[in-house]
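Input.
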Amino acid sequence: MSAATLSGRHIVVTRPSGQADSLCEAIEARGGNALRYPVLAIGEPADKRALDGIAARLDGFDLAFFVSPNAVSHALAPLLAQRTWPAGLRVATVGKGSERALAAYGFKDVIAPQGGFDSEAVLALPEFQADAIAGRRVVIFRGDGGRDLLGETLRERGAAVEYVTCYRRYCPAIDPAPLLALAAEGRLDAITLTSSEGVGNLRVMVGDAGWPVLRKVAVFAPHPRIVAHARAAGFEFVLETPPGDDGLIGALESHFRHASVTLRS
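Output.
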């Protein structure tokens, strides 16, 4: 396959700052123009008491779950500044980015699904079945809000679950004019959306004046929930991709290769 499969394409990457590098590099390696436009910003939690207080109680848990790379970095940095990680406390997560983040802190044998990237995939793992999790104490590190499916299901299966908020998400204030100008000229080729919350933020960030032109741009999203949010928001073309950077890149390449063939026909 040509190294320039996305040559000349302008593709928006909406991941938070600090998490967009791998996807942007993959797009640019194929000749594309990766436009960084984060639709989620990550910051310190409004109330840090829960995070500060959990350090002294870590030994009482059997399993620690980190919902994202943000959870890894925002929880482990302050916790490990106070104490060493308990030898018997196993670690679990979801997503390759989170696995890499944990590996950077030296964690091995991380429990994580290899065939899915959501709570449903986690709950299908043997370690999370009722016979394995009943009676266990689980701490879940996450941002403010988020889905409760994992914790609720684990409680139904007999586990004691505690949530710890270690970061907050908010809508950044970024000028959408450059994106809207490209879209108006017909030169904005795709938007990658990797968060349901980010869909709503993007709609707010571009405003009512910019929305009619942006909604015509093709959207690529790696999960049915994000796809549903994007379609509900009013995007005219939304494609569900396989998970991960490779899945997104493959879908972009396939789409634009087919578009080029169609134009030549």
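The longest helix spans residues 244-264.
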